[in-house]
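At this stage, I wrote out one protein's amino acid sequence and its C-alpha cells, and that material follows here:
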Amino acid sequence: MPTAGAWDRDDHAWLGLLADAVRGLDADTPPAEVEPQVGSLAAVGLAVLRAHAPRHVSTATTVAFNRTAAVVDHLLPAAELEYVEQYCELLLEAFGPALSPEAVLKLAAEIVQADPHEEAVRTLAGLGLPPDPRPPLDCTHVSG
C-alpha cells in the first residue's frame, strides 16, 4: 500500500488529501526554473488519483480527479520525463503500471489535449461496450 501503513488498505481517505495537495500546486505561478518539477509533480499526483478513479463510474475519487485535473492542467505541459521518473520511483511498486513514467506522461497528454470523443471511447471500452461504428455527424446550421 502506498501509504506505508498509515491507513488501512481499504481506507482511501488519503485520496482527498492528495487531491487537495495537487490542487495546491496551482496556488502561485511557479518560477520558470521550477516549472518542470511542479508540472511533473502534478502529473504524478494526477496519475495516483486516476489509478483509484474509474473512468466509467462517477465516484468521489472520480470527481476529485476531474476537479483536480481542471485546476492544474496548465501545469502539465512543463512535465519532464526525468522528474516524472524520480517521483514515480518509490510509487511504482505500490501502483504498478499506472505509475510508470510513460503512463504518467500519457495521462498528462490526455488531460491537456482533452478530446471528449476519445474519452467517450475509453469509457465505453471500460464498460466492455464497443463504440458506435458510425462516423460522427457534422452539425450544420440552417436558418429559415
